[in-house]
Write a structure and sequence with these properties.
alpha+beta; 4 helices; 12 strands; about 45% strand; globular
């Protein structure tokens, strides 16, 4: 696994925190559908508990993905089912963070990344400070499909580049989100991104698909942490 792919997988999975037009009807109400997307996203970010199942594929790698958190006390789990030497896991439990990235484990205090049990914990929302014009500019086009409550949001490539990479290394050709939204709640999110990533002298194609299905929102979530957290590597 080269440096380019490592960098992109890490930013995609832990960032997570996002794609084909067939049977779509054009809808000119761009601002209204933009508002629908961000209202639904805001509701997800405001959740006090969350559990999400999904899958992620990046080029020749594919994996199931599980994301869950409780706000009080702060508990987080992000796991994949990649091979052991490519495993990605992240946990927050009892005020500590636990990371396993490609078989290298590290541990720290949650306070070191600004997470305290006494403060509200939510999914990050980088869009809160955007005005209407800025939000409208994120999507190149929006269509509502024949199937009820299903929408396709085509992201402007330059906007996707900013979202996934801070260093100007990404060159996105296409980024599309296909989602089902009911009562301003995401029922499913499917993201596809194609392009390339360049870091130093290394280049790699970006061929990413990500599917997420929220299964519990603001409902009790029981997170099962690994038994070996007590013996996790302490750096």
């Amino acid at each position: 696994m080269n440096l380019v792919k490592n960098h992109f997988i890490k930013s995609t999975v832990i960032l997570s925190s996002a794609l084909m037009f067939t049977g779509c009807q054009a809808n000119s109400n761009h601002s209204a559908l933009t508002d629908l997307f961000f209202s639904s996203y805001n509701h997800l970010c405001e959740a006090e508990t969350l559990s999400v199942n999904g899958t992620i594929r990046l080029s020749d790698l594919s994996s199931d993905l599980y994301i869950a958190f409780n706000q009080s006390p702060v508990e987080v789990a992000i796991t994949t089912d990649l091979p052991e030497d490519q495993q990605i896991e992240f946990y927050i439990c009892d005020g500590k963070t636990y990371l396993n990235f490609f078989g290298t484990k590290s541990q720290s205090l949650a306070a070191n990344i600004g997470i305290e049990d006494s403060s509200d914990f939510h999914l990050p929302n980088p869009f809160l400070n955007l005005n209407r014009k800025e939000r409208d500019a994120i999507f190149e086009s929006i269509t509502k499909e024949d199937e009820e409550n299903v929408y396709t949001y085509t992201i402007r490539p330059v906007m996707m580049e900013k979202l996934i990479d801070d260093y100007g290394a990404a060159n996105i050709e296409r980024a599309v989100i296909k989602t089902k939204i009911v009562n301003e709640q995401f029922q499913s999110i499917n993201l596809e991104v194609k392009g390339g990533l360049e870091i130093g002298n290394s280049t790699s194609p970006i061929d990413l698909s990500l599917s997420l299905d929220p299964i519990q929102v603001d409902e009790p979530v029981n997170i099962h942490f690994p038994a070996d957290l007590t013996t996790w590597y302490e750096g």
